[in-house]
């Protein structure tokens, strides 16, 4: 048998939850494939006058609860299987936080770093030209994902509005504030994770003070998580990025770490060009040590936050994880074969479809604000986000307790139960 794909993983998660829910066969069959999978060819005139044809996808997985929702990824490894899996997980994520939205995902096979800004704009507009009949505030609402950003969303919105002939800011989220973006979107994913962690801590009877945290990844999700947790009194003892990491038992100030990273300078335990360049760190004495990304995962800390890449905690290293709590800010950082090992060790894995759902929740808020053409303050956004994240946490915790199952399975049971209910009600 060949290696399991992302979509195989998704289907096995679906089957596990379906068994617990005793889901009728007809509903399960519908949930095992996307409602619609679109593949398009996008011809782009390159700066040198030649034409290159790119392949794009949009997987519209399920829309029983509302319009399809999910990001667009620009990456050389984008493929049909991955887009399908990601659109399934978006369906689950939106249902976990009880948003009136379905799930979708898109992508283009491209290395955007090889394109000029003009070529990137033509590619983004070309994607919308091919797909606009299937997009829109009431149909399918894309957003940024890996290697796409607010500028790309702005081009896509502009192209869409030209094609349909009217304003429709709610057709896409993650827009610049000038075009109807939402306050608070930049740190929404991390903030949502922090709200969830606060509830976990309350359940475990722990206080932020002296709770040590290691964070893998110092990008949008990881760096905001570090700063928000530091502000709340947690002790950040390790951070890393693609170049390596730093571990300091006395604690790390993430704002300082970020400043140093930006300046490319070195101060005490922080080093050149990154949160840590291991070469400089090797000879340092004292509590401060360089760590590799692999070592960071196995540190003796209270909370581990993978916030970088997929497939970081696997059956190879799961047994060596010492943190009793893992908050998954990245998508898919734990492979399915690692889950039973962690459950057996009593490690509480707070799953990605809950922990990082703050991002899509504020995307939904963006759409609501666009629809009413009335904009909220950051404080208003955060109050609403906190309630949604905490309600979702409690629904999942209760399910986990009732069936004595891992939180990930509980999250899928809650989500699939909600999607199945909407499908049933539609008849
Ligand atoms: P980002 O590009 O802003 O940051 C990624 C970080 O990971 C960078 O610090 C990078 O240096 C680091 N990294 C890259 N390769 C690494 C490696 N081999 N080892 C350790 N670190 C490495 O991305 P992001 O938006 O922060 O996303 C991170 C994860 O969070 C992804 O899985 C993403 O899908 C997920 N996520 C993000 C959001 C969001 O709103 N940003 C929402 C939901 C999920």
Beta-strand fraction estimate: 15-25%
> How many helix segments?
15
Could you give the count of β-strands?
Answer: 12
Helix fraction, binned, reads 40-55%
Radius of gyration based on Cα positions: 21 Å
Structural class of the helices, strands and pairings?
alpha/beta
Mean pLDDT: 92
Q: How are the SSEs ordered, and which strands pair?
A:
Blueprint: H1 6-21, H2 25-31, E1 36-45, E2 51-62, E3 68-75, H3 80-96, E4 103-109, H4 117-131, E5 140-144, H5 150-164, H6 188-204, E6 212-216, H7 220-231, E7 235-241, E8 244-248, H8 254-263, H9 278-281, E9 288-291, H10 293-297, E10 303-306, E11 325-327, H11 339-344, E12 348-350, H12 352-355, H13 358-372, H14 378-403, H15 407-426
Nicotinamide-adenine-dinucleotide is lined by residues 189, 216-222, 240-242, 293, 307-309, 329-331, 356, 359.
What does this structure look like?
The protein has 427 residues and is an alpha/beta fold. 44% of the residues lie in helices and 17% in strands. The chain is built from 15 helices and twelve strands. The strands form two sheets. The protein has a seven-stranded mixed sheet with strand order 9-8-7-6-10-11-12. The chain has a five-stranded mixed sheet with strand order 1-2-4-3-5. 50% of the residues are buried. The structure holds nicotinamide-adenine-dinucleotide. Nicotinamide-adenine-dinucleotide binds next to α7 and β7.
């Amino acid at each position: 048998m060949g290696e399991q794909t992302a979509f195989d993983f998704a289907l096995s998660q679906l089957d596990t939850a379906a068994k617990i829910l005793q889901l009728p066969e007809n509903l399960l069959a519908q949930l095992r494939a996307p409602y619609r999978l679109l593949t398009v060819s996008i011809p782009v005139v390159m700066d040198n006058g030649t034409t290159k044809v790119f392949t794009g996808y949009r997987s519209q997985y399920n829309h029983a609860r509302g319009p399809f929702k999910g990001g667009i990824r620009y990456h050389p490894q984008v493929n049909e299987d991955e887009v399908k899996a990601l659109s399934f997980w978006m369906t689950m994520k939106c249902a976990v936080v009880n948003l009136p939205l379905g799930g979708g995902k898109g992508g283009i096979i491209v290395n955007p770093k090889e394109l000029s800004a003009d070529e990137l704009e033509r590619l983004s507009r070309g994607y919308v030209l091919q797909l606009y009949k299937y997009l829109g505030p009431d149909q399918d609402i894309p957003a940024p994902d890996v290697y796409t950003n607010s500028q790309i969303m702005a081009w896509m919105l502009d192209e869409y509005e030209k094609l349909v002939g009217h304003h429709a800011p709610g057709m896409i989220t993650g827009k610049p504030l000038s075009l109807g973006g939402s306050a608070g979107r930049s740190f929404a994913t991390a903030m949502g994770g922090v709200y969830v962690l606060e509830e976990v801590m309350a359940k475990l009877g722990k206080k932020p003070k002296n709770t040590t945290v290691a964070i893998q990844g110092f990008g949008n999700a990881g760096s905001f998580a570090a700063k928000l947790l530091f502000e709340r009194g947690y002790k950040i003892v390790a951070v890393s990025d693609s170049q390596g990491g730093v571990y300091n038992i006395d604690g790390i100030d993430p704002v300082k770490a970020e400043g140093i990273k930006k300046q490319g300078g070195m101060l005490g335990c922080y080093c050149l060009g990154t949160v840590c360049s291991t070469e400089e760190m090797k000879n340092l004495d004292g509590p401060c040590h360089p760590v590799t990304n692999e070592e960071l995962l196995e540190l003796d800390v209270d909370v581990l936050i993978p916030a970088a890449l997929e497939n970081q905690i696997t059956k190879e290293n799961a047994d060596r994880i010492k943190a009793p709590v893992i908050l998954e800010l990245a998508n898919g950082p734990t492979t399915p074969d690692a889950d039973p090992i962690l459950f057996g060790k009593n490690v509480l894995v707070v799953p990605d479809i809950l922990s990082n759902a703050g991002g899509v929740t504020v995307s939904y808020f963006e759409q609501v604000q666009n629809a009413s053409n009335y904009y909220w303050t950051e404080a208003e956004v955060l109050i609403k986000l906190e309630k949604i994240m905490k309600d979702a946490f409690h629904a999942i915790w209760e399910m986990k307790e009732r069936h004595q199952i891992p939180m990930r399975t509980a999250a899928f049971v809650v989500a699939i139960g909600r999607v199945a209910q909407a499908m049933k009600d539609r008849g």
